Amino acid sequence: MNKVLLFFKEHPASSWVLGFQLFRFILLPFMGLMPQDAYYYFYGENLSLSYFDHPGMIGYQLRLFTDIFGKSVFVIKFSDFVITSLTIYSFYKLATKFISKERANTATLLLVSTLFISILTFNSTPDVPLILFWTLSILFLYKAIFENKKWFWLLGGITMGLAFDSKYTALLLQIGLLAFLGFSNKYRKLLRSPWLWVCLLISLAVTFPIWYWNYQHDFASFAFQSTKRTGSISKLNLNFNFFFGAIGHQLFLLLPILFSVFTFFTYKYVKRAITKFKLPSSKVLFLLAFFIPTFVGFFSLTPIYWVKLNWMMPSYITGVILASFFISKKLIKWQIGFSIFIHVLLALQVIFYIVPIKSDDTWVGWKELAKETKELQKTYPNTFIFSDDNYKTSACLNFYLDEKVYAQNIIGKHALHFDYLGDNLKTLNGKNAIFIDSDKRFKNHNKKGDILPELKFHFSQITELEPIIVSINDKEVRKFWVYYCKNYNATP
């Protein structure tokens, strides 16, 4: 016991890191199912080489943990906690390559203090495995380049491929690697090294399942992730609400102190490169190579395109190490103090649900909805269930109910990976259904009063039933419109 107390006394930063992670672990049982948790669990239920809207790594992760520990919301959250904890440890090992162990502990504390880490811990998204493999890739590439350990080129290739198997934005790893070698006078010669090109070929080989799945499905996933977005960007329509929205997201994820330090050193290094044509030392250039393309690159799009809050997350890994060069002890204390305050508020919200969230992106109400829907099926037996909100309601009901739940492909709309399950919807012809529609702005108990036109095309008769009202802690927090639909026709 005395040795433990002595360790905490001699290593205050490590103690705070462990404290933050213990806090998150204690909060796990209070977290309800998020729609993203349910949707990527649905990935794992329907194993595939890849999926329509993302690669499959998060689905494989959830399938592995639920196969080992059983299906539950806690196990899903626990899997994210474990993977994110591995990311934190990998980050610490990476940081020690650039700064002393003491400062690496401080850098790790800066990382752990962010809401970025809390989001990865509490919500299953492709970013959870992406950030782990991103961090490992940079660590292995460092060992290959700066320590001249050839076999780490192979490990770097594997982890870069696994990062791409997590999310397509991992392509920026290869871009960062080549950018560093191209700009580095000292290491440019490695562009001719066979080890580099073997590394890149291995990274490509590891991503083969994604390419093969896309080949089988007319490159649907690549088209979904690229064509629509590049079309929007090419219009060059200025909208500064996007820009200020991106700043708000980054202030939220990093907290104001750390975001301000990010802004400071980005300006410092970019200005020096542009005005003085002077590049930093090799190690700093290496860190910037995996920061600038992601952080500055996506930020440069914000005046013309809505950049999602998680797109810049990979840049935080090397960004926090760079920030540790500049941040003072006083600012670190402010960062930690503000972080503790925000996390206490987060805990109160999770446990007591003080502020209602006017969105389907919430952890409350899904289990209660499933229970009410099951009761409803007793009144209207032999019905199938479907919803129309891309994936959220359908995925959550699919998680809790012991039957197949359908999405908006039932009424002829595109439904993300629900379209790629091989379902023959004609087998449902003539059956009755229950249609669930979330009222995101829940204001009263009234029925909706109108019917989706697509429902009328596919069912001979639609009757709106009394809405389902969900209460949490004796407070009404969610509302779902309900329709009983007769005589389905898949091809009207």
From TrEMBL:
Residues 53-213 form the Glycosyltransferase RgtA/B/C/D-like domain. It comes from the Bacteria. InterPro entries: LipidA_mod_glycosyltrf_83 (IPR050297), RgtA/B/C-like (IPR038731). GO terms for biological process: lipopolysaccharide biosynthetic process. GO terms for cellular component: plasma membrane. It is found in: Cell membrane. Its main location: membrane. The chain crosses the membrane at residues 13-33, 73-92, 104-122, 195-213, 242-265, 285-305, 311-327, 334-355. The keyword Ribonucleoprotein does not apply. It is a multi-pass membrane protein. Keywords: Cell membrane, Glycosyltransferase, Membrane, Transferase, Transmembrane, Transmembrane helix. GO terms for molecular function: pentosyltransferase activity. The keyword Disulfide bond does not apply. PANTHER family: MANNOSYLTRANSFERASE YKCB-RELATED (PTHR33908), MEMBRANE PROTEIN (PTHR33908:SF11). This is Dolichyl-phosphate-mannose-protein mannosyltransferase. It comes from Tenacibaculum adriaticum. The lineage of its organism: Bacteria, Pseudomonadati, Bacteroidota, Flavobacteriia, Flavobacteriales.
